[in-house]
Structure to design on (60 residues):
């Protein structure tokens, strides 16, 4: 089992980008701190990045 780490808001995006795309990540905190919003925003950024990559490299 991995040790718990604490990240600042600025560090979360980079962490998710490098870790959560390959391994499960557990995010917890009290209600109302923005856990769901953080994950939704991250997922939207991945979709946009992948769409942009596909538009450049995929045949039309």
């Amino acid at each position: 089992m991995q040790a718990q780490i604490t990240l600042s808001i600025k560090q979360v995006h980079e962490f998710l980008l490098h870790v959560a795309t390959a391994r499960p990540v557990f995010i917890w905190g009290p209600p109302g701190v923005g856990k769901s919003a953080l994950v939704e925003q991250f997922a939207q950024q991945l979709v946009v990045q992948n769409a942009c990559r596909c538009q450049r490299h995929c045949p039309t």
Notes: Residues 9-57 form one domain. The mean pLDDT is 75. Residues 35-57 form the longest helix (23 residues). Helices lie at 9-20, 35-57.
